[in-house]
Amino acid sequence: MWYNLIFVARKSAQALGSDVHKLVLTLIAMNVILWLGYPIAWGFCEGGNYISPDSEAIFYGVLDFVAKPIFTAVLIFGHSKIDYARFGLSARSARESAMFEKEEMTRDKVSPSDESNI
After folding, report:
1. Distances from the Cα of 49 to the Cα of 33, 57, 82, angstroms
2. pLDDT(92) > 90
3. Which of 21, 48, 67, 101 would you label with 12, given CA atoms 20 to 30 Å apart?
4. Residue range 3-20: average pLDDT?
């Protein structure tokens, strides 16, 4: 997993452009630091009993806060700056989606006169 995260993901992101590469590097760095932080926290708290239970709760709380909402915010904010078309994707507005669905439904309906020709 570490190999894929550090080497394979970086190489793939680099092929998609410098902005994607920068975002992926930021997310990889956050993940590596946070994932290493949990065993360090355990070692200081439960493992070595160097930190009081109150400090332990704060330590884990900070790790959890950075790992969940902060990481998610960085991920979403970073993706908002990237053009979907580079990935072969397109985004539609709600109005465009509704119009597309109506066209699909109209096209899928078969009139009674068409059934006799089948």
Report:
1. 22, 13, 45
2. no
3. 67
4. 86
Residue 85 has pLDDT above 90, yes or no: no
Chain-centroid distance, C-alpha 18: 18
Which residue is associated with the tokens 């397109």?
Answer: 90
Q: 93-114: buried (b, 16+ CB within 10 Å) or exposed (e) per residue?
A: eeeeeeeeeeeeeeeeeeeeee
**pLDDT for the residue 47:** 87
Asked if 16 contacts 8 with a C-beta cutoff of 8 angstroms, the reply is no
Integer Cα distance of 85 and 12 in angstroms: 17
Which pLDDT band holds residue 6 (cuts at 50, 70, 90)?
confident
pTM: 0.66
Angle of helix 53-65 versus helix 18-42 axis, rounded to 10? 160
Listed in order, strand segments (DSSP E) in the chain are none
Contact 23, 16 (CB under 8 A): no
